[in-house]
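Subject: for your reference before the review

Hello V.,

The reviewers asked for a structural picture of the protein, and I figured it would be easier to keep everything in one thread rather than splitting it across files. Below is the amino acid sequence we used in the manuscript, unchanged from the supplementary table.
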Amino acid sequence: MSNVWDPQRGRYDEDSPLARHGSYAKFRSYSDLIKAAGPAGTFSAGRFLKGIGGRAKSTVWDLNVFSFNASQACAQIEYIASLPPPPGGVHLLELGNELYASGQGNPRFPDGSSYAKQMAPVISCARRILPKAKIAAVGFSGPSASSWSRGLKGLDVDALSLHVYSPNDQEVAAASADDRLEYIAGYSRQMLRHCLNVSAEEGFGAVPLWHTEFNYGLQKDIFFPELVFGALHGVFHASRILASIELHTRVQALTFQTLAHPHPYPPNDSAFHPAMPVARISPQPNRPDLAQVSGTAQLVSHLAFHALRAGTMHPVQTSSECPLAPAGLYKQAWPISGTSARAAPPCLLAAAFNSADGDAADWTAMAILNSCRKPVPITLAKAAADGGSKHEVTIYNISDAGGWAPLPAAPDELPWASGPLRPEHSSASGALPEGWPAPGLSFSMVVLRR
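And here is what came back from the structure prediction:
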């Protein structure tokens, strides 16, 4: 929709013939809904920043470079530059959405080379108006290269975008029944590594990726339907976050595509499969107390709570030689270019988050995913273990089916006292015991307080 959107007016760009072309014609019905909801400007970028958008540390602005010509696109950048800047002062500008898809790029961008040529003046405009901005071109769809991405070589951008909606049911079914949970738990890390390898092999070297959309496959008959609103889906997202931290020199941005949907879910709705949303809104207006969240939301919120309040975050190296068995998905993704070789992916994936300067408390939170069926003993490095006055451990079982529940009255009090998931929680004095076993197929949040 961003390809035919006017962010200043908060309206679809109905005046452009391109906005009425092909697959974009379906947005006309949405356009009428938006007009009925309020005057021009109601859904502008400025209004977004005054609401929920203003709570974010940064925003990826997905620019309209499809129905807007170069001068209109430049005016759009000038408008964004006039808005309150992000806290860090660095704007993130993405040059369109999925224009490699014929239904979105044609007839203006029949291939990557024509896109690159037409983006040159837009990029020059952005460099002039927002000299500190980071700019990403529409890059990869899925874990493979294409003639589109090969046409982008030489374009003056800071990153390429990546969208991946996988795996699908057929991919998961190809693994044995015993291996399928391991397959999904380890999928996000392997997928991201594989995509980075493909980008490097195609000649983009260390050009970073902005992973601006991902989720389960989009088919309605999704794998593990009994777990789709539970911890497994949450781990799928959380592990993509941890993998991005692990690969932070190559991944600059990460957003996952999710929705809130009305309850009950509309019958025969074909826009997205019902498994994607992580929140349900009430059919009754102005009743946020009736909203519900899924187990996916509960697990990812626990990770995000620590990440968003942290002063620093960093990957955690593991010395465990426990390989993820079987190596399975994308064996060629391990090792990644520029890292040491390893026969198979390890079981553990982890990241640490540290309290910010000036915090009243001194703490470190570690998110630890064990993708294997067997427990893996953990012993913290001496520097991390020394001085611990208390440790808290919350363990989510990947097989917890979750479901839906109201948002807790105090969502900032972790772990949630109520929710779709029922994690195991414990706390004790002193450091985490040496050899603490990360349970098989689990996601753990470990908080060390000093």
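For the response letter, the relevant points are probably these. The chain is about 25% helix and 20% strand. The two ends are 48 Å apart (CA to CA).

Happy to draft the paragraph if you're swamped.

O.
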